């Protein structure tokens, strides 16, 4: 492990939308490749990396149910969307020479591995990036909760939530010039003030297990690596 790094095992959570670039839908390969490069640069420091990628660039359960689809069916479609994103990220990482495993909460053996906790831990010890797909495997949850759950199970030291802004603000910084970024903020304040870090169940699960959430900008080149070395701006939720 590089001496400049204070974390040896981390969870990186990104939304599905982070992979769609400037398009309104789906996967934008150059963007997937850019994010894979960011992950590689952290992997090169010797950090063990777990990833959860959302599915919102392809399908969201709530959107499906708003259009009349049965909610649980729509949620399963959302979970399947995360598997596609995970496979895209796997492909991009392996092209950069980073070994990976896609591990699905819903077994689909021809496509990827089923989730077996001890096996996933072993992959991490062997420095393979573990991309956890299909969310928690349950409808009515989100991939933020899946990321928090797997981060706890894998004993990650923190969740890094990559977003479009460099932290948590008191109001939307893209709309309000006087928005202020928090250096640190408590889980309870995020919940009480609906700060939009993650959904409430994910924040509560992180709080109850003392898992710090670090919100940072994924748009900043080198941002993920920088934050692991204590550089750059971000918000720490504890
Ligand atoms: N989903 C689910 N259970 C889970 C995780 C995800 O049912 O444990 C479904 C849900 O329908 C959700 C969709 O998968 O809308 C995509 O995940 P999410 O909305 O979290 O993706 P993101 O917003 O991060 O792109």
At CATH level 2, the architecture is: 3-Layer(aba) Sandwich
Low-pLDDT segments, ≥5 res: none
Sheet-strand content, in percent, reads 15-25%
Helix content: 25-40%
Give structural notes.
With 238 residues, the protein is of the alpha/beta class. The chain has a single domain, classed as Acetylglutamate kinase-like (Carbamate kinase, 3-Layer(aba) Sandwich). It has eight helices and nine strands. The protein has a nine-stranded mixed beta sheet, with helices on both faces. The two termini are 25 Å apart. Uridine-5'-diphosphate binds next to helix 2, helix 3 and helix 5.
Helix and strand topology:
Elements: E1 9-14, H1 29-43, E2 48-53, H2 61-66, H3 71-95, E3 100-104, E4 113-114, H4 117-125, E5 129-133, H5 143-153, E6 158-163, E7 184-185, H6 187-192, H7 200-208, E8 213-217, H8 223-228, E9 235-237
Parallel strand pairs: 1-2, 1-6, 2-5, 3-4, 3-5, 6-8, 7-9
Antiparallel strand pairs: 8-9
Helix pairs in contact: 1-3, 5-7
Binding site for ATP: 13-16, 56, 60, 163, 169, 172
Domain Aspartate/glutamate/uridylate kinase: 9-217
Subcellular location: Cytoplasm
Which features would summarize this protein structure in a list?
238 residues, alpha/beta, Carbamate kinase, 9 strands, 17% strand, binds uridine-5'-diphosphate, AceGlu_kinase-like_sf, EC 2.7.4.22
Quick synopsis:
By secondary structure, this protein is α/β, with parallel strands linked by helices. The protein has eight helices and nine strands. Uridine-5'-diphosphate binds next to helix 2, helix 3 and helix 5.
């Amino acid at each position: 492990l590089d001496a400049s790094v204070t974390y040896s095992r981390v969870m990186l959570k990104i939304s599905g939308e982070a992979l769609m670039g400037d398009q309104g839908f789906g996967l934008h390969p150059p963007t997937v490749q850019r994010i894979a490069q960011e992950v590689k640069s952290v992997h090169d420091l010797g950090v063990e990396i777990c990833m959860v990628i959302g599915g919102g660039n392809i399908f969201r359960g709530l959107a499906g149910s708003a259009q009349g689809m049965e909610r649980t069916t729509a949620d399963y479609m959302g979970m399947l969307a995360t598997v596609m994103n995970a496979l895209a990220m796997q492909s991009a990482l392996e092209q950069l020479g980073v070994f990976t495993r896609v591990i699905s909460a819903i077994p689909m053996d021809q496509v990827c591995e089923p989730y077996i906790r001890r096996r996933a831990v072993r992959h991490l010890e062997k420095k393979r990036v573990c991309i956890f797909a299909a969310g928690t495997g349950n409808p009515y949850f989100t991939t933020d909760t899946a990321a928090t759950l797997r981060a706890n199970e894998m004993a990650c030291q923190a969740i890094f939530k990559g977003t479009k802004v460099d932290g948590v603000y008191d109001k939307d910084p893209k709309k309000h010039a006087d928005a202020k970024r928090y250096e640190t903020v408590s889980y309870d304040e995020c919940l009480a003030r609906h700060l939009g870090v993650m959904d409430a169940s994910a924040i509560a699960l992180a709080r109850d297990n003392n898992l710090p959430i670090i919100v940072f900008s994924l748009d900043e080149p080198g941002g993920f690596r920088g934050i692991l070395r204590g550089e750059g701006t971000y918000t720490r939720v504890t």
